[in-house]
């Protein structure tokens, strides 16, 4: 199939496919006598894997590392598991940071109800921010 057919089947743009080829995520395809790229079913499967891996939060560099292991005939399960664990740990840290930020914003919001708008005379700052909490 040609690149346009592959793009339609995989649900992505031809530009993305060319980019994936340029960084080694997708192998350079065979060419027809006329010079058109010619892709087989394996290209569709590979692009579907790339989309699934990206949806799970993996970067293209990480996906490439998995595919390199697979291309060498290796088992990528432990490597992939390690990558996913790293993303889970990052996500857990972000959740803690977001919960802390939410508590601070909540304090500021609740404190704002106690402030007198008439007392807000500073032309450069809002008392809701400066007096309702420690800030973020």
Spell out the blueprint of helices and strands.
Blueprint: H1 3-10, H2 14-23, E1 30-31, E2 37-38, H3 41-55, H4 60-71, H5 77-112, H6 127-131
Antiparallel strand pairs: 1-2
Give the SSE string. HHEEHHHH
CATH class: Mainly Alpha
CATH topology: Multidrug-efflux Transporter Regulator, Chain: A, Domain 2
Reported CATH architecture: Orthogonal Bundle
Can you put this structure into words, describing what you see?
The chain has a single domain (3-131), classed as Orthogonal Bundle (Multidrug-efflux Transporter Regulator, Chain: A, Domain 2). Helix content is 63%, strand content 3%. The chain has six helices and two strands; from the N terminus they run ααββαααα. Strand 1 and strand 2 (37-38) form a beta hairpin. The longest helix has 36 residues, at 77-112. The chain is elongated. It starts with a helix and ends in a 5-residue tail after the last helix.
Quick structural overview:
This protein has 136 residues and is mainly alpha-helical.
Question: What key attributes describe this structure?
Answer:
single chain; 136 residues; mainly alpha; Multidrug-efflux Transporter Regulator, Chain: A, Domain 2; two-stranded antiparallel ribbon; 6 helices; 2 strands
């Amino acid at each position: 199939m040609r690149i346009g057919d592959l793009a339609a089947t995989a649900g992505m743009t031809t530009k993305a496919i060319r980019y994936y080829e340029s960084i080694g995520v997708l192998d350079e395809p065979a060419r027809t006598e006329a010079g058109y790229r010619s892709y087989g079913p394996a290209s569709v499967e590979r692009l579907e894997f790339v989309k699934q891996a990206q949806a799970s939060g993996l970067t293209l560099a990480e996906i490439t590392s998995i595919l390199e292991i697979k291309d060498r005939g290796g088992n990528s399960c432990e490597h992939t598991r390690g990558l996913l664990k790293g993303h889970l740990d990052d996500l857990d840290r972000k959740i803690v940071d977001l919960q802390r930020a939410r508590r601070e914003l909540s304090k500021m919001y609740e404190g704002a109800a106690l402030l007198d708008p008439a007392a807000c005379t500073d032309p450069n700052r809002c008392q809701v921010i400066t007096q309702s909490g420690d800030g973020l």
